[in-house]
UniProtKB/TrEMBL annotation:
Highest taxon of source: Bacteria
Taxonomy of the source species: Bacteria, Candidatus Tayloriibacteriota
Membrane found in the keyword field: yes
Protein name: DUF2214 domain-containing protein
Keywords linked to the UniProt accession: Membrane, Transmembrane, Transmembrane helix
Keyword Transmembrane helix on entry: yes
Regions crossing the membrane: 12-34, 55-73, 85-107, 128-149, 161-179
Organism: Candidatus Taylorbacteria bacterium RIFCSPHIGHO2_01_FULL_51_15
Length: 186
């Protein structure tokens, strides 16, 4: 019998599974949020679905982190010398920090606003800029991590990769603010 499942293959499969679950949960959560606010009010059911997608994001992050550590410890010197790996780790740290803020701050705010007209809520008007920015950071970060993970190598330094990532984050936040302005003025 041929041994097709070595340690690297097993960790790689787990890593891909973590990315699929985490990114899928994040993308679905963003789509659900946008469709939930379309009518200007978040219902109990919509909020419940948003919370469930958050669980998938954290499950994905957990699998991604454990499997990433497993891959790293198979060849630490290779990964420490890889600008792609170091940039991806930095982006995953942003994903985790953004996720913590989203779940500890934004979810609590959205829960308080269940059934309330969002555009007329002073709390929503005051705090929604960070909510929309957080959504943009989420989409761009998960997409960046996914793309970096898919590429074999990159001829760029960590600072070059993270500079492009920072520019994309900036563009995403500007777009999110334009969307927010349009939403609040409808």
């Amino acid at each position: 019998m041929i041994d097709i499942f070595d340690a690297k293959t097993i960790w790689t499969i787990a890593h891909l599974l973590g990315v699929a679950i985490g990114a899928g949960g994040a993308y679905l959560g963003d789509v659900l949020f946008l469709s939930s606010v379309r009518d200007g009010v978040i219902s109990h059911t919509e909020f419940s679905f948003l919370k469930r997608t958050g669980l998938f994001v954290w499950l994905g992050v957990g699998i991604l982190t454990l499997s990433g550590a497993g891959l790293f410890f198979l060849d630490p010197s290779y990964y420490l010398g890889s600008s792609k790996f170091l940039a991806k780790v930095s982006i995953v740290v942003v994903i985790v920090i953004n996720g913590v803020v989203f779940h500890l701050v934004h979810f609590k705010m959205l829960q308080r606003l269940i059934g309330i007209e969002l555009k007329t809520s002073q709390e929503f008007r005051r705090t929604s800029a960070t909510l929309f920015a957080s959504g943009a950071v989420s989409v761009i970060s998960w997409t960046s991590a996914l793309i970096l993970g898919s590429l074999r190598s990159l001829p760029f330094s960590v600072s070059e990769i993270l500079s492009v990532y920072g520019i994309l984050i900036g563009i995403g936040i500007v777009m999110a603010m334009l969307f927010r302005k349009r939403f609040l003025s409808r």
